[in-house]
Amino acid sequence: MKKTFCLVILAAGLLSLEVQAQDGTNALVWPLQKSYAAVQMESSPYCVMKIGRDAHAFNHKDVDKINKQWISSVEVYKDAKALELYGEKAKDGVVIINIKEEYANQALEFLNKKE
């Protein structure tokens, strides 16, 4: 449960979305940006930026530095599905950030600066 919550918090930091709480009420999840760093995690998900058909791993600590306009969608996987997709490195889950085609060059520049 704790790992799932951390993955959801990570994804929520990328996008604003409305979620339904277990008691049936709606709650607004806002972009966490800098506050993401305040979340204590025992383990870190494997983070991937997908640009076209290419997948590029990056450090989860850089997630708040990604330009939100570049993002077309975010996928979060855990357990067996994460392992199936990315192997042992995704044992703590995986967050896949899909980049819009028109921002591919900027996203690649961002990744190259991180290396």
Provide structural commentary.
InterPro entries: Plug_dom_sf (IPR037066). The protein is of the alpha+beta class and 115 residues long. It has one domain (2-114). It is built from 3 helices and 6 strands; from the N terminus they run αβββββαβα. It is globular, with a radius of gyration of 14 Å. The N and C termini lie far apart (32 Å).
Topology readout:
Layout: H1 2-14, E1 17-20, E2 26-29, E3 46-51, E4 54-58, E5 71-77, H2 79-86, E6 94-99, H3 104-114
Parallel strand pairs: 3-6
Antiparallel strand pairs: 1-2, 3-4, 5-6
Order of helices and strands: HEEEEEHEH
- First-last Cα distance: 32 Å
Major sheet size, sense and barrel closure: 4 strands, mixed
The low-confidence runs, each spanning 5 or more residues with pLDDT under 50, are: 15-38
Structural class by sheet pairing and helices: alpha+beta
- How much is the radius of gyration in Å? 14 Å
Percent helix among the residues? 25-40%
Report strand order across the widest sheet.
Answer: 4-3-6-5
Count of the separate structural domains: 1
Number of strands: 6
Share of residues in strands: 25-35%
Tally of DSSP helical segments? 3
Q: What is the approximate shape?
A: globular
Average per-residue pLDDT, rounded, comes to 76
